[in-house]
Amino acid sequence: GNIRKGGHIVIKGRPCKVVEVSTSKTGKHGHAKCHFVAIDIFTAKKLEDIVPSSHNCDVPHVNRVDYQLIDISEDGFVSLLTDSGGTKDDLKLPTDDNLAALMKSGFEEGKDVVVSVMSSMGEEQICAVKEVGGGK
Q: What range(s) does the Translation initiation factor 5A C-terminal domain occupy (predicted)?
């Protein structure tokens, strides 16, 4: 009963953002049920689940970190600068073509490009891109 619209929930082992919650009344034999409609935060697929309101649900721990883009390799991997001054080289360009195009154009123009990386349940993905400052 504590999960609200806009919150996060685990459905079928996937971290999701809740877009709709509806509650049914208790039946003759039992519990009120909560019907969740949620969008997978990595694949954007719509998932639904119905859970008795007295039961516990898993809530994913979703983290967002901003990194500066250093390089984009030919095979589609990106090199990012971490806060500690190291590099993070294990992420690919986002599957969202708009985000990937924004990253490439900003990088080619010599702008400082900052990407937001969302991580949850052992998965990471670039979810947002910001250009900071002008080019050369």
A: 61-130
Q: Could you tell me where in the chain the CATH 2.30.30.30 domains are found?
A: 7-52
Q: Give the angle subtended at the CA of 125 by the CAs of 111 and 3, to the nearest 5°.
A: 125
Spatial contact of 119 and 127, defined as CB atoms under 8 Å apart:
no
Q: Name the fold adopted by 7-52.
A: SH3 type barrels. (2.30.30)
Render the burial of 56-91: b for 16+ CB within 10 Å, e for the rest.
eeeebeeeeeebebeebeeeeebbbeeeeeeeeeeb
User: What is the DSSP-derived secondary structure letter of residue 93?
Assistant: P
Backbone dihedral angles phi then psi of residue 112, each to the nearest 5 degrees = -80, 115
Q: Which two tokens stand for residue 18?
A: 């809740």
| Distance, CA of 90 to CA of 135 (rounded, Å) | 26
Is the pTM value of this prediction over 0.85?
Answer: no
- 58-76: pLDDT as tens digits: 888 888 899 998 988 888 8
Q: What is the number of other CB atoms lying within 10 angstroms of the CB of residue 129?
A: 22
